[in-house]
Amino acid sequence: MPVYKAEKYLPQCIESILAQTFTDFELLLIDDGSPDCCGEICEEYAKRDNRIRVFHQQNKGVSAARNLGLEQAVGEYIAFVDSDDYVLPGYLKDLYDSLQDSDPECLVIHTVYKLYPNGDSVFCHLRESRIDGGEVFRILLDYGDKDFGYSCAKLFSNELIRSHQLRFPVGITLLEDLFFLFEYIQRVSLIKVSDVANYVYRVGYSDTALSVAYKPLAEELCIFRAYYGYVSGFVQSSGYPSDRFHKSWRGLRAFFHRVLLVLYSSKENKSYRERIASLKQLRTDYSGWIAAWFNPDYKADKVTAFFLRTGWYACVDVWMRFLLCSHFKKMFGGGK
Predict the structure, then answer these.
(1) How far apart are CA 205 and CA 208, in angstroms?
(2) What is the DSSP string of 129-142?
(3) Residue 158: left if φ>0, alpha if ψ -120 to 50, beta else—which one?
(4) Are 201 and 150 in contact (CB under 8 A)?
(5) How, if at all, do strands 190-202 and 86-87 pair?
(6) Cα 130 to Cα 108: distance, rounded to the nearest angstrom
(7) Are the C-beta atoms of 205 and 121 separated by less than 8 Å?
(8) What number of CA atoms fall less than 13 Å from residue 37's CA on the CB side?
(9) Which of 65, 110, 274, 291 could disulfide-link 153, Cβ–Cβ 3.0 to 4.6 Å?
(10) How confident is the model at residue 331 (pLDDT cuts 50, 70, 90)?
(11) For residues 152 and 199, is the Cβ–Cβ distance under 8 A?
């Protein structure tokens, strides 16, 4: 469990793990340099229960915290929990029971409840299935539009992680869970997806949530390129026509939008020449995807896409600066 700025929710989270009906586990609490009382809370719980081990490090981000946990874990299987969420009593037992009669290098995927600040909760259903290790690309075909990319609500093999030296990518703060999952599933013998929810995922509670915050352009480009690379790899290995993966290709739009928005953000402060050079490079590198799948929903964005597809970079530049300077509301998902 990576721990950072979660003192309001941390006790409930830890208590929910200690209340598991499956009791043969160790709980690794990784204090990622949290500036509040999280470190002290972790130590206090460690005194009460010898299954808890606490590690403190300078703030390095959630990926580095999870990686430290992977280095220290001695259990046969790995399950993740975030410190501002909590789990129901059957979380570990149901994950472990789903593994029974399967190869130890099977990946178990369960689903989650989403809990919103107004108290509403939503069961995020997943269609139950068994996916052979040679057909892991079906994850994108069958669940490309679903919330399956979390590290939570899954059971991983510690031996597989160690033997392939798998780690969460450090240096990016978006989709790191999904990229770890993509690396992992390429090594498994079986994926079992069950429509079971014992994980309560708090949506929009944490003031440190980074899922909607824009990153520097270099990081946004890294995220888009990595996601594009994984999808391309799965498409190639599947032998299926590319358009069968339409859910994933369309899903890339949100991250391409982010790249364009950051390119024109005041924080980047790029010159005209730099912006034009970036647009040219994007069109060169992703011309096929832009032509086939960059089809935004809003009319204003359709104009951007048309200019970019046709190579009218100066028009893209003028149009983007106009939209952002006028604080246009209906663009790229609803705003800047």
Answers:
(1) 9
(2) EEEEGGGTTHHHHH
(3) alpha
(4) yes
(5) antiparallel
(6) 10
(7) no
(8) 8
(9) 110
(10) low
(11) yes
Please indicate whether residue 241 or residue 210 has the higher confidence score (pLDDT): 241
For tokens 């689903």, the residue is: 111
- pLDDT tens by residue, 77-97: 999 999 999 999 999 999 999
Give the integer Cα–Cα distance in Å for 66 and 1: 7
The residues near 83 (Cβ < 8 Å, ≥ 6 apart) are 1, 2, 3, 4, 6, 9, 10, 13, 38
Q: 3-class DSSP state for residue 2?
A: strand
How sure is the predictor about 105, in pLDDT bands with cuts at 50, 70 and 90? Answer: confident
- What would the DSSP string read from start to end of 158-201? HHHHHHTT--PPTT--SSHHHHHHHHHHTT-SEEEEEEEEEEEE
Largest CA distance in the chain: 65
Tokens read off for 266 = 């005041």
- Comparing 58-67, 208-217, 281-290, the range with the smallest average pLDDT is 208-217
**pLDDT over 80 (residue 240):** yes
Radius of gyration of the chain (CA): 21
Q: Which residue has the tokens 């300078």?
A: 58
Q: Using alpha carbons, list the distances in angstroms from residue 3 to 116, 130, 213.
A: 21, 33, 20
b/e code 315-327 from CB counts within 10 Å (16+ = b): ebbebbeebeeee
Residue 125's Cβ-count burial label (10 Å; 0-12, 13-18, 19+) is exposed
